[in-house]
Amino acid sequence: MELINTKLENGVLTIGLIGHIDSNNAPAVEREITKAREEAAPANVIVDASELEYISSAGLRIILRLKKDFPDLVVKNVSSEVYEIFDITGFTEMMTVTRAYRNVSIEGCEIIGQGANGKVYRIDPDTVLKVYHDRDALDDIKRERELARTALILGIPTAIPYDVVKVGDVYGSVFELLNAKTFAKLIQEDPDSLDEVVAMAVELLKKIHGTVVKPDSMPDMKKVVCGWADFLKDYLPAEDYNKLHDLVAAVPDDLHMIHGDYHLKNIMLQNGEVLLIDMDTLCHGHPVFEFASIFNAYQGYSEMNHQNMMEFLGIPYEMGGQIWDKILHLYFEGRSEEEIQDIADKAKLVGYTRIMRRTIRRNGFDTELGRSEIENARNHIHELTAKLNTLTF
Question: Is 360 found in the same domain as 346?
Fold first, then answer.
């Protein structure tokens, strides 16, 4: 019976472990590994556990001895059951141990949400899957899981991913969301529910903004927005750039949580409970930065092409404007119309800053629509910097 298989490539010996490794066959396995090492004289070793079904302490000691001789040892393609053994025994802290990921198809699945980093699909009535655009998204997945866990501990209702899978050549996070519907879906099914849906969204938004986080637990949105403004230095008139830079820099540091991508497809209703999803944009900062992203979602990104709203949120552009207006008036209930318009202008300035940077980075100067979007954002920035003296409210 075959105990191991090996492959030598570019000085790296990959040792494939097979079946069960326990005290009965561990000595024979180690002899095979020693023989392979002597023949290959590798510079480094990788252990492939894709065919490993079980490993006892005797097998783990073999890996420890390999680790001693090859400090950069990696154990890859570990099944969930075997990974638990590595984790419980502390091996995941001593060396790099990576899981094997089951493959999942999204063919024919409904897209229920999307953001800058990925799309969210409904796989079945119980399960949704966020598929990341980046092929090297494992660090992003880990980071989003940590952000979601932090938010949940602080009382923000959200779903924590319970599995990581492969979708073609990219990765995805699996969430259990039994019969949950996005707010976009609720409005599509019943347009008369618009006021109720917006009210629930604003209630959760206030809860998010009322939550204080530790300084290093999530990114500082002010630093991000400062980067957006600095990017535009060579694309704006000096007076506009300097005013924009100073306005952003003057926003006070703020440890209150903001979501960063708060729109109808990132809020879900499950059995009467409102849940927040797509947590990779979670950060802290002044709420003006949140309202900038909300403005962009419901108006800014679709201003030059109204069809974007239908493709993005599944609602007409005009309804997006209604939602933006309703959110402002509900969130700032009791404020005068003049005050609300001032808050909207402050959010728009940050929003257009992001749009202009985003369009330029996406080679916007190469297309007629892109050039129109850049010029439109530049004009709005010019008008708004001239009338605003602060971004706070």
Answer: yes
